[in-house]
Every structure is written in structure tokens, then in C-alpha cells.
Write a structure and sequence with these properties.
The chain is mainly β. The chain is built from no helices and 11 strands. The strands form 2 sheets. Strands 2, 4, 5, 6, 9, 10 and 11 form a 7-stranded mixed beta sheet that branches. The chain is globular.
Amino acid sequence: QVQLVESGGGSAQAGGSLRLSCAASGTTFSSYVMAWFRQAPGKEREFVAAIRWSGGSTYYRDYRDSVKGRFTISRDNAKNTAYLQMNSLKPEDTAVYYCTVRYGLDLRMTAYSYTYWGQGTQVTVSS
């Protein structure tokens, strides 16, 4: 059974940083795309970042425009863990952040493309 457990959420001031982790279990995730989505109150779940491993030290990443240059997605295949380093946080980054995975190579930006989801972790940024 595939399980995803997020951690690292919390509160930060605008301009601050947080690092989210997603621990995966139940299968070997090296062939999976790992991604982060977020959902603010009253809004739809939206893509934040995705990463896939292409062998050796080669990774492919994609980000939504509003987080480019501020957020960095990474993964440790040996630990089956993905990370989201969030710097220069803004109040509009406030949301529940979800870790998700899909088997395959495409860095999809649509939630329905992903198969397994974590329970989410709250990130609150105050001005």
C-alpha cells in the first residue's frame, strides 16, 4: 500500500523560509514523478512543483510561475523522500500543501494525473 506523509509545515513571516518533506512508502519511487500541490481556502488545488529522476544525477523539474526562483523541489531516491524548499515566502503562499506521485515520465500539472496523495500540511505566511 502506497503511503505519503508530509511534514515541515507551519507558520512563517513574509520573506521567511520553510522546508517540506514527503516520506513515501509502499513501493520504489525512483520511477515515479513526485510533486507538490497546494490548496488555499475556497480555491482549487493547484500545481506547485514536480520532479522526476532520469538516472545518475539527472533530474527534471517544473514549477508554477509564481514560485519560480523561490521554491526548489528535490528528492532523495534512497530515502524515498521528496522535499520542497520554500524561500522568500509570501502571504499568498498560504495553503495546505499536498505531496503526490504518479508513475511515469511526464511532469503533469493537473491533479487528476496523480495517483496517490498525502494528507497535507498547513503552511501559513503572515505579512
